[in-house]
Design brief:
It comes from Silurus asotus (Amur catfish). It is a single chain. The chain is an alpha+beta fold and about 240 residues long. The chain has one domain (about 5-180): Butyryl-CoA Dehydrogenase, subunit A, domain 3 (Up-down Bundle), CATH 1.20.140.150. The chain is about 55% helix and about 10% strand. It has helices spanning about 5-25, 70, 75-100, 110-135, 155-185, 220-230; strands at about 30-35, 45, 50-55, 60-65, 150, 205-210, 215. It has a 5-stranded antiparallel beta sheet with strand order 4-3-2-1-5. The protein has a two-stranded antiparallel ribbon with strand order 6-7. A hairpin with a 6-residue loop joins strand 6 (about 205-210) and strand 7. Helix 1 (about 5-25) packs antiparallel against helix 5, helix 3 (about 75-100) runs antiparallel to helix 4 (about 110-135) and helix 4 (about 110-135) packs antiparallel against helix 5 (about 155-185). The longest helix is centred in the last third of the chain and has 35 residues, at about 155-185. The radius of gyration is 38 Å and the shape is elongated.
């Protein structure tokens, strides 16, 4: 099977979206907090869904593993953890199904299996977009030691990766669905009726008139018909 441009696009874009989603999941930068009360002005607090780190604008040192029980008790943190991990797993499953369904070393590819893989990749994008959108919506409502709260790069990476997976999976699914539909129609027997064909009535070999489809009998056929149906003359001799 020759690889289509859409499949190549999917096999390149889906892993890129998975890498962006993975970075958004593990990196502690869903939001940053500046001007923390009681702390030097150059300290920046980076909060993610797994860890919290501190950095300074005057140095490159980053200190992580900071505990904040109130922050991690928020419902969005637990939901984001589960949904982001589920998105990563579903994407890998979808890529595996696409690989098995569109292998180049077989003569009969399993296009339906590959289409289901594209559907799973599209669903994984939705699983990533939902918690990121929710977190971004309540970004300012989550408890923080300062009011100077800014969006982190993980939100941007998560949006990009989730949208990439959603679009790529949907395009692959629709393309394979269309291809399977065309093959199904091609395999069905076609019955074509030509309205211009001339037919003759059964048992008659006469030609058709131009104004009517009724067969026109020749004069010879008419005479033969009369002879065959003429009653025999019976003469009685008294």
């Amino acid at each position: 099977m020759r690889a289509s441009g859409i499949l190549i696009f999917g096999f390149v874009s889906a892993p890129c979206g998975w890498i962006l989603t993975l970075t958004s999941t593990v990196a502690p930068n869903w939001r940053t907090i500046h001007n923390i009360t009681g702390q030097p002005l150059d300290i920046i607090l980076h909060q993610g869904i797994w860890d919290i780190c501190k950095s300074m604008t005057t140095s490159r040192d980053v200190l992580c593993n900071h505990e904040d029980t109130e922050y991690f008790k928020n419902q969005i943190i637990e939901v984001a953890r589960r949904m982001m991990v589920a998105s990563l797993i579903v994407t890998l499953i979808g890529l595996c199904l696409m690989t098995v369904g569109t292998t180049c070393w077989t003569d009969t590819p399993k296009m339906k299996l590959a289409g289901f893989g594209g559907f799973l990749i599209s669903c994984s994008g939705i699983l990533a977009i939902i918690p990121i959108s929710w977190y971004n919506h309540i970004l300012m409502d989550i408890n923080a030691p300062s009011s100077d709260i800014r969006i982190g790069y993980c939100i941007i990476l998560g949006y990009t990766g989730g949208l990439a997976e959603l679009i790529v999976g949907f395009v692959i699914f629709m393309w394979i669905y269309r291809c399977c539909g065309e093959e199904h129609r091609r395999d069905r027997p076609e019955i074509s009726l030509k309205l211009g064909d001339k037919t003759t009535a059964p048992g008659t070999g006469g030609a058709l008139s131009r104004a009517s489809s009724v067969p026109v009998h020749t004069e010879k056929q008419d005479l033969n018909f009369r002879k065959e149906n003429r009653p025999n003359n019976i003469s009685l001799t008294l």
